[in-house]
Model the fold of this input.
Amino acid sequence: MKALLTLLLTVVFAATAHAATYPEISLDEVKAAIAGKKAILLDANGTDSWHKGHIPGAIDFAAAKGKLSSLLPHDKGTLIVAYCECPGCPYYLAAADAAVKLGYTNVKHFTAGIYGWRQSGEPVEKGTEGASSK
Done:
């Protein structure tokens, strides 16, 4: 039990320490970036969740992992917004890290996630088979 608790605390600490790496982006900033077609969104909630509802235009990161470089724009300064379920959810880190590994320099975290998006009354888009990785 002690080993399990130690492992859990290590994971939580690592996620918290790493979370500071990516600046947060607010709901209003995300909406403005989408409206201006100035951002690419990476949904890190998993394919099942993506199919049930995601921020319109978001890429299903789980389905796109192997071909992410072909789905992102050539301009490495493009705003990439990674999100997952809600504040405290660490899954966005994999998507953000993948974008950085591909050379993207403007990667941000939409902390509110899909939960905050829905709670604010914003529309969600449901996925269709074959479309999860665009």
